[in-house]
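Researcher: Here's my situation. A collaborator sent me these components and asked whether they could plausibly form a single complex. I don't have experimental data yet, so a predicted model of the whole assembly would be a useful starting point for our discussion.
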Amino acid sequence: MATTQQCEMLLTVNGEAHSVIARPADTLLFVLRNKLRLTGAKPGCLNGDCGACTVLIDGGPIKSCMMLAIETVGKTITTIEGLKHSPIQQAFVEHFAFQCGYCTPGFIMNAHALTEKYPDASDDVIQEWLESNICRCTSYREIEQAVKSVLLKKHRND
Amino acid sequence: MVPFDFTYHQPSSIHEAIQLFQTLQQQGKKPMYYAGGTEIITLSRLHLVFTDAVIDIKQIPECQVLDIQQQQLVLGAGVSLTTIEEANPFPLLTKTASEVADRTARNQITLGGNICGQIFYREAVLPLLLADSEVVIAGKDGVQQRSIHQVFQQHMQLQPGEFLIQVKTEQTYLSLPYAHIKRRKQGEVGYPLVTVAALKKDGQLRVAFSGVCPFPFRSQAVEERLNQQLPVNTRIDEALQHLPRPILDDIEGSAQYRLFVLKHTLFDIITELEGE
């Protein structure tokens, strides 16, 4: 497949197919926010460091500032707008796991993937995953508690 | 935001990728092979990389192999570091890979991208240097398998149009005793002050380094000193005299501080592998 400078991409975002005209050089973050008006994924460092732009690609967390939109053709993209009343969202509210809220969508997407993939995640695994995101307000303790509460509820329901 | 345009190509075979590179080059373009893409996107944003055509190798089946074949571990260049970690076929590589960047970034960073990258830490190469791995490279002259020691000298010595397909490691190396220590300026994520990886084979230490010099390396002179029948601190002091130069001296740490940290890290590595 070769493309010209602007091309049509068919992206599947939050269960809906979208036809987008964008540059192959456009990042997924740029396309989500500027073409699809899905502004939940946040631009932070734009360098893959802060994790504010984290979305799920085929269920796994990816920093959308570091991936080309064209790479996601044929894959399933989930943004924070696609999570509805998920356990991790509820847990963030219950544990006050945010202050300014700018990093929250990225943290929630990462934490959601973690709790889905590793319902028995150890403390080390939780720490390893959460290190991918930065919270300038330092709500780390509350975020960790929120993640652990979701894992605990999953176990109680088993 | 990538501040320039490029065309995007997604070949499905090695042959197609090589043909594409040649065709694009003949058209006057500056094609670049693309795997995880994190470094290309990052450095493009800083105007440190330019390409007007990227060739994404991730759809090439040979680049996605993770398997034991004929007593060798075969890892495709397009396999992500987290995929390698989760499969864990080579525990030293798992440990080394798990300390590159952060967990989410490693979902994208590939083995080939880390080894062939411009950012000079290239830590995933350390276990491969220690295990005398072979690299499979495609270019206009076809597919060739070579020793990593021939091809990786400070960085991957690839000719224009060549790209890394796979890394092959003899199965006997995968379960050898190992140690790996990455020391950073601060925190648990980020570039190293020093990274030391070691394997113990036939009673001898093999040691490779990143963060000490502006390139990863394994040095015969250093290993000879570390394997002498002398007190540990004497061996380390002599080994440090034989490090390649220059020693990194940058915002992460001064040369003097890096050597101080390295000395203690080597002591910990030797203690772990020799039980002293």
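Model: Some features of this prediction you could bring to your collaborator: Chain A has a mean pLDDT of 95. The domain at 7-82 of chain A is CATH 3.10.20.30 (Ubiquitin-like (UB roll)).
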